[in-house]
Amino acid sequence: MSQTIFEKSQAKQRAYSLPAEDPVFAAFSPPKDLCRATPLLLPEVSELDLTRHFSQLAHKNMSIDTHFYPLGSCTMKLNPRINEWAASLPEFTHCHPLAPNESVQGCLQIIYDFLEILCKISGMAAGTLVPNAGAQGEFTGIRMIADYHKKRGDHNRCEMLIPDSAHGTNPATAAMNGYKLISIRTDENGDMDLQQLEASLSKRTAGLMLTNPNTLGLFSPAILKISSLVHQSGGLLYYDGANLNPMLNLARPGDMGFDVMHINLHKTFSTPHGGGGPGAGPVLCSQQLEEFLPMPRVIKHGEEYRLQNHSKTSIGNIASFQGNFGICLRAYLYAKLHGHYGLRKIAEQSVLNANYLKNKLAPFFKVPFPQPCMHEFVLQADQYLSKGVRVLDIAKRLLDYGVHAPTIYFPLIIKECMLIEPTETESKATLDQFVRIIEVIVNEIETQPELVQNAPYTLTVSRLDEVKAARFPILKHTVDH
Amino acid sequence: MDYISNQEPQIQEMLQFLGITDVDALFADIPAQIKLARPTVDDGLSEYEGSKLIKSLAAKNTFSDYENYLGAGAYEHYIPALTGAICSKSEFLTSYTPYQPEASQGMLQIIFEFQSAICALTGMDVANASAYDGASACAEAVLIALRSHPERKKILMGASVHPNYQAVVEQYLAEHGIDIVKIPFGVSGELDFDALKSQLDAQTAAILIQSPNFFGNIENMKQVVALTKPFEALVIHCANPLSYGLFAPPGELGVDIAIGDCQPFGLALNYGGPYAGYVACKQALLRQLPGRIVGETVDKQGRRGFVLTLQAREQHIRREKATSNICTNQALAALASLIVMLWYGKEGLPQLALTNYQRAAYLKQQLEKISGIETTSGAIFNEFLVKFPHSAAHVQHYFRKHHIELGLAVDSFYPNLSNWFLVTVTETKSKMQLDRYVSVAKELSV
Amino acid sequence: MKKYSESHEWIELQGNIGTVGVTDYAQKELGDIVYVELPKVDKEISKGSEAAVLESTKAAADVYSPVSGKIIAVNTLLSTEAQTVNSSPENEGWLFKIELKDPAELANLMSQEEYHNLFK
């Protein structure tokens, strides 16, 4: 039975060491009435037990390094180790965020140069590396749109248009900014319903949040019409950069008509997902929105860089300091290694891999959108419901075959769906192997559906009771556990 | 270079299977006027050239040449070697959010243990899997309070809360029509309780106080709680979590929500991030917690396991009604913090906190002996204010000649406090280093 | 006498007080209910507005009040036994009781037969 580290505590065992005390320090002790009265209930564990505990936990985790991980919308590409090396250099790790500009010219130059690269890729005029994640980038961009309208003296722009296929962070971000949501439906072809869009645009429209290709992996052929319509109404366009991978140096959001956007460095730019973060969500924008960019910004004076901390029009601060610089550094190196040439290759190969896999899997599932996809695609498994097998079961059975399941039940508008994104880093052999595994599972569904319904069997736990976890939450170690 | 596995032979096979001759055929839907031409020149770098580029940029950073006494929300601490060794393990570094729990028991258990460690440290009932940083944690805490009291439209915030944190709270509240009233601080940097009393009323949803505050002072949180209780407003306590190794944690003080930044635990300065915010609260506020939460459960055979739970609060389910838009958080950074909290453990963490306190107290006392130098009174943890009898620029320049970054010139955040410095001392400063600081200070004051 | 809404709520009247819950169809669609967010007693609700939220592990569904009025009671059993909504949606799994403001609104609701016809 697995134990938490708290349960491995043994009296007086320890891992730590501290510098020897100089006796003169002992003279200082804090006022008793301010001190802790209750003991600190952290475990007492030796270095060996700590090392072993976490090493054993690592064996209970799938990862890109160890398994094919075709999670749609997540871009699970290889996280190169050279980026880790760069980020661990003490010349970077030791830099205090409030260090004087002269002493951190390397950091400042990286921020400045990386933003130039990102502006070039996105067709935007300026940007910020501060947002700590995609959702934080969305928040920043929507705040900028809000201040843009306020500055124009237009206080009627209270509605934000969002497609029904959008990632949950989009409506959540809009709501955090006080907008009323207008949902625009996706039609049977996987396109935005243009008629409904036109009907929904008005003088109350602050903007439209969109990702292109959309969450179905489809490029919107009407994108220029969409951006033109929105601009005509006086609204602005926000680009959710989660699906930027197939667009790198192939088409630029700025050219599509977007005014402001974010990029997920932990998706498109290979920074490690780390089990749920840290990521980074840089924001890029058009010239007319530049004045609203958050603080601080990096400016260049001749050959010197410095931080600008104040601006009258900026939306202000969105993080404690400069954001996840360590993540941006990794992404910067990634971009430099590829060059614009290599980034274009990423776009092309991610799309080739996706279309190849989609067509190889087509015999086994319903393909709701037959046209070529971009970097990801949707398949439906509802035909197996008659055997009592849901796409959830297929996902769990995949785990037994050493593959991390793709995204399931997203986007919400497609029933019993899988969203699959192989990324450009996977080889044909891996894709072919995945197809063979699917074939085996489909066979199992035909002949022994219960096997699939009760998967997985070969991991450290079988299917977990999520209902129990939600009804009777146990959210931490308790003493009488 | 790139990391694309497939080369010409495989690419040809795949194109053939698809019945096309060039990948370009797949991009037919892209309007011609926005489609970029393929670059013809390879402007990429080999790994070796990339490493040289990075090294040349690294060489432009000279901050390591100085002994660092800067703090103000980012602290230099020793990071145990085990931290990097575990965090760089493939299975943690390159895994994703644990949406398939059976395949992610490692990460899920880690988050569960992180939540447990934060609760142990703060004395609170529940904690989430992390926020981006201390600033966003403050903002999320304020939003929790506003959701708990939907009819109330006023927030009190100490003016001695880190100004960047204050700015982010204001950012998150920008479109909510909330009255943010700042409670000023007195001459010594401590909270003005008269001002607090005069502002507290039935319209107040919450009060946000940082302690130790931006200037390093420990505030009288007991009094804040006592004054606030009758109005049923929520008390939000923002703190450097290391200070709880020594000082009374929010659970003992009756605080409702405890937040801050885990950066002092295992997270290098990294020019501002990644850090990791913590958000912990009383049981009654559980369903208002933003972000991911891991819970314990059992599998079909009754074996213990961990899952993401209470997800109905989150953006991927609740969308516009979610408690927050947060999706990706700071999981790997939280792992680093967990490892350090465990490495120090029950006895080590209080020792670490104490030695921070003592070294700061020692430096402060030695500086106070120098005529012309002013410090503030009141209890501190590991940061304090110092004023030299010269302009800040002159003082900085002099110390830098001796390769010491003496502290933060506070007027960069509080323009009225010219010539005051915030000096931070951690376990990384030996007596010899502190004595050297003092002798440089003495030379200045002659 | 029970009446039904198109969004799968039912209301049973006793005098001017209506007991409101969700139908068997609704609980089946949602799956295992893990948590019920109930309105505050004395809250004024208008017809068609959100009165409660039913959470499963994968979804959160709004419950709309079929009538306007004031909440006079909520089913406190559900705070510890949320699954009652699944096991007895039209009986012990009732959500709240509401004092009707405008009984005329009942005319817009469906009878039991009309509701069951929706599924034909």
Short description:
The complex is a heterotrimer of chains A (481), B (446) and C (120). Chain A is an alpha/beta fold.
Walkthrough of the structure:
Chain A has helices at 47-58, 81-87, 90-93, 105-122, 134-151, 169-176, 194-200, 223-232, 253-256, 325-361, 391-400, 428-447, 449-453, 466-471, and strands at 126-128, 159-163, 180-184, 205-210, 236-241, 260-263, 283-285, 297-301, 304-308, 377-380, 407-408, 417-420. Chain A is an alpha/beta fold. Chain A has two domains: 82-338, Aspartate Aminotransferase, domain 2, CATH 3.40.640; 342-467, Alpha-Beta Complex (Aspartate Aminotransferase, domain 1), CATH 3.90.1150.10. In chain A, helix 6 (169-176) links the parallel strand 2 and strand 3. Chain A is globular and about 80 Å long. Chain B folds into three domains: 8-58, no CATH class; 64-78 and 347-445, Aspartate Aminotransferase, domain 1 (Alpha-Beta Complex), CATH 3.90.1150; 81-97 and 111-295 and 311-340, Type I PLP-dependent aspartate aminotransferase-like (Major domain) (Aspartate Aminotransferase, domain 2). In chain B, strands 2-8-7-6-5-3-4 form a seven-stranded mixed β-sheet, sandwiched between helices. In chain B, strands 11-12-15-14 form a four-stranded antiparallel β-sheet, with helices on one face. In chain B, strands 1-13 form a two-stranded parallel ribbon. In chain B, helix 3 (81-87) runs antiparallel to helix 12 (331-368) and helix 6 (134-148) packs across helix 7 (163-172). Chain C is α+β, with helices and mostly antiparallel strands and 120 residues long. Chain C has a single domain, classed as RNA polymerase II/Efflux pump adaptor protein, barrel-sandwich hybrid domain (OB fold (Dihydrolipoamide Acetyltransferase, E2P)). Helices cover 14% and strands 35% of the residues of chain C. Chains in contact: A-B, A-C, B-C.
